[in-house]
Specification:
Nucleotidyltransferase, domain 5, 47% helix, five-stranded mixed β-sheet, globular, single chain, alpha/beta
């Protein structure tokens, strides 16, 4: 029976799944909707997993599938079993898949997407995980945090010359409303979701990139928030004196250059041996690598190259 690895990565805005052969060739990928237990119903979450898994497995039948990543009971698991045999499920965490996507065994994971967290793993196996408790309690420096700072900055733009910012036009445009009155209506009358606020981070970053001082301040303030959390993890795990890989995961870390540079600047000031790592593949591909390892497949340089090359052809592409 042919064996495949299925890597799954569920997040606050999307669910990714990638199917990989034993030699590292990507045989399929799929994408579903959000899977956040705080904000999405069990039905929505289940459907998101099913959509991603079904699409990823569409090209195989009567195969032995080894899964790494979240795989809830019920419809998501049934989607794997519909035409194939589930050999084993490794419930890998987001930190596990992040390390795998960077081919690192230990270091510091700085995840910043819709939400955020910092996960540290020392060479001796000690681990710490800070953040990740949602936008009110713990998503420091996330896309949500950047979007919220941008919203507030837009409304303060008319106060003084020092606060003047192009965000007063960019935020309404991003929300497809007319002026700040339209933004106010979306926030307080019609309601605005966590994901919609997080999506505003793109507009804030775009204005920061073209030199808007206030927008840059929003990006740097968010970066400083998460950097402070990361510094505490470094100190608690005694990582400051080591050659430390700082692994950036999530849309903000991967695509917001100014945010990432600020975070790394802060971290390198306390950990001189730190080096920035943006993994060449997304976490779902890292999860598939973990499944391959569970199958007894070695991560050779050739296999890693094939995995990255194959994933670059679809939604789960390499950087």
């Amino acid at each position: 029976m042919t064996r495949y690895a299925l890597g799954i990565d569920g997040g606050g805005s999307k669910c990714d799944a990638v199917l990989m052969s034993e030699c590292g060739l990507v045989a399929g990928w799929g994408r579903g909707g959000p899977t956040h237990v705080y904000y999405d119903s069990p039905e929505v979450i289940g459907n998101s997993y099913v959509e991603a898994i079904t699409e990823a497995l569409s090209s195989v039948e009567d195969a032995e599938v080894w899964v790494a990543g979240p795989l809830p009971e019920g419809a998501p698991r049934d989607a794997v079993l519909a035409r194939n045999r589930l050999a084993q499920h490794l419930p890998a965490s987001e930190a596990d898949t992040a390390f795998a996507s960077a081919q690192e065994e230990w270091g510091l994971v700085v995840l910043a997407g819709t939400g955020s967290f910092v996960h540290g793993r020392a060479p001796d196996g000690r681990e710490l995980h800070f953040g990740g408790q949602g936008p009110i309690l713990g998503d420091y420096g996330s896309a949500y945090a950047i979007g919220l700072l941008g919203l507030r900055a837009a409304f303060a733009s008319g106060w003084t010359e020092r606060r003047r910012t192009r965000l007063a036009e960019a935020i309404p445009s991003a929300l497809q409303v007319t002026g700040l009155e339209g933004v106010f209506d979306r926030v307080y009358v019609k309601g605005i979701t966590r994901s919609e606020i997080a999506a505003l981070a793109r507009a804030v970053n775009a204005e920061a990139e073209v030199g808007d001082r206030v927008a840059l301040g929003c990006v740097h303030r968010a970066a400083d928030e998460l950097a402070e959390v990361a510094i505490e993890v470094i100190e608690e795990l005694d990582l400051a004196g080591l050659s430390l890989s700082v692994i950036g995961i999530g849309g903000v870390a991967r695509h917001c250059r100014l945010w990432w540079e600020r975070v790394f600047q802060r971290l390198s000031a306390v950990a001189a041996g730190a080096r920035p790592v943006i993994p060449p593949m997304l976490p779902a591909v890292g999860a598939a690598l973990l499944a391959l390892r569970e199958m007894g497949v070695e991560w050779t340089p050739e296999l890693i190259a094939r995995a990255c090359e194959g994933a670059s052809g679809g939604a789960l592409g390499c950087r």
